[in-house]
Amino acid sequence: MTLIKAVLGLSVLAQSAIAVLRLGCSQLVTERFDPLSWPGKVSPHVHQVTGGNAFNLTMNPNDDYSELASCTSCRVKEDKSNYWTAVVYFKHDNGTYIRVPQKPNFEVGKTSGGFTVYYISGYPPFQHTYAFARGFRMMVGSPTLRAEKERSLDDVSSYASTFRCWDFEDQNDPQYPYIGTNLHPPGMSPNDTVGFPTRYCPNGVRSTIIFPSCWDGASLDTKDHKSHMVYPEGPVDPIFGIIWSNGSCPATHPVKVPTVQYQVVWDTSPFKDMWPSDGRQPLVLSNGDPTGFGQHADYVFGWEGSSLQTAMDNCKDQKGDPQLCSDYLTILTDDEMNQCKKQVEIDEVVEGEYISALPGCNPEQAGPELATAVTGCTAVSTTISRGAEMTTSRYTQTHVGTVQPTSTYPAPTATVTYVA
Ligand SMILES: *[C@@H]1O[C@H](CO)[C@@H](O)[C@H](O)[C@H]1NC(C)=O
Ligand SMILES: *[C@@H]1O[C@H](CO)[C@@H](O)[C@H](O)[C@H]1NC(C)=O
Ligand SMILES: *[C@@H]1O[C@H](CO)[C@@H](O)[C@H](O)[C@H]1NC(C)=O
Ligand SMILES: *[C@@H]1O[C@H](CO)[C@@H](O)[C@H](O)[C@H]1NC(C)=O
């Protein structure tokens, strides 16, 4: 039985409760920007960004990004959120690096770069899912991590960031998304790993990153961008994984919000003939991580008005096809998504050619201890259009803004602390 069929079987019990949206998102820009952890500054390592074109060096949570953005690189016009992850480089035997290109996930259309974003609600089936409030943002994972967190069914977070080695017999088989290694939900295949796969994967490597889905109901962000959110209580179901977990939200974080999941498909096939013959694992995350344990992702909410709530209440296709929710959402064409781009603002090469070092100052650090920042870094630290200092001190100033949540969760006002 395939996962989809398994999920469909399950859904008979709770058909009216489960909502899924699965959005192809093309690349908006790739550069050293990270407005959550490094607002106003050039960030230490490269990220790929998708979503609304109001993405910027600084993103004040009091701004309404659904109004500021004029386009989105994601499938749904109402969604001006921003989504970002690190990128992967291939390290050639001659010591130089080149960005690993990405290819579309199955059944997302002809996206250009980027990744797939999922919004999943309805699990546990009878708990209401509230859309995120305006000003909400969060992060998952840690760029300095270099040691494996052992997967345990009792520890939901240990399934949050995984890699899958795609090894299909026949990629042209229309069933290929649903066979072989894809029989299992993310993290649950015996072939899924927390670190990079240790062999060449003929059909590429798929990253899955799953955000926590229980909110404290008050903070739109926290200084670590994490502690306002936790995963539902365990254990993780070995058949349904985190995404269909039936765990409830703990009393400290009682508000169920959509489960946001990113999937990135790294196309390693251009490097087939250059794959190291000595067994060296040649993939390196842009944060100087050759292990994969430091995979991380960020989210800034930016849906128009109550459109996400409407989608979570009404988009019931189990495979998350946005076309089947076009009564409620405006579905963009591939061309419309792919045309939404943001100009690069940092004058350095990050992709398309072999480079002698990873952009920023990211010498490979293989751990297992946490990676440390490089001192005396001379990497480009200003944007082309305006001056932005790169600094080793992460937090220089704290602003506190107040944002009225737009979600219907009965919280009077949420206070957001952000750093700039
Ligand atoms: C980015 O921020 C700068 C400085 O605040 C501003 O001038 C510019 O208009 C912003 N760009 C976008 C796309 O919002
Ligand atoms: C490393 O190998 C790549 C791929 O063959 C080549 O394009 C690049 O010029 C080489 N760089 C050096 C420094 O040898
Ligand atoms: C694990 O990978 C091997 C080698 O590609 C494959 O033969 C096997 O079917 C995979 N197992 C699962 C459960 O995906
Ligand atoms: C939730 O899942 C666990 C483990 O899969 C199962 O034992 C339990 O009965 C489920 N609870 C509900 C309420 O469905």
Features:
DUF1996; six-stranded antiparallel β-sheet; disordered C terminus; disordered N terminus; mainly beta; 20% strand; signal; 420 residues; binds 2-acetamido-2-deoxy-beta-D-glucopyranose; WSC domain-containing protein
How large, in whole angstroms, is the Cα Rg?
A: 20 Å
Widest sheet: strand ordering: 1-7-15-11-9-10
Provide the domain count: 1
Ligand names: 2-acetamido-2-deoxy-beta-D-glucopyranose
Order of helices and strands: HEEEHEEEEEEEEEEEEEEHHEE
Q: How many E strands?
A: 19
Q: Could you estimate the helical fraction of the residues in percent?
A: under 10%
Spatial shape: globular
Structural class: mainly beta
Estimate what percentage of residues fall within beta strands. 15-25%
Number of contiguous helices: 4
- Could you tell me how far the N terminus lies from the C terminus, measured between alpha carbons in angstroms? 50 Å
Overall mean confidence score, pLDDT: 85
Low-confidence stretches: 1-16, 386-420
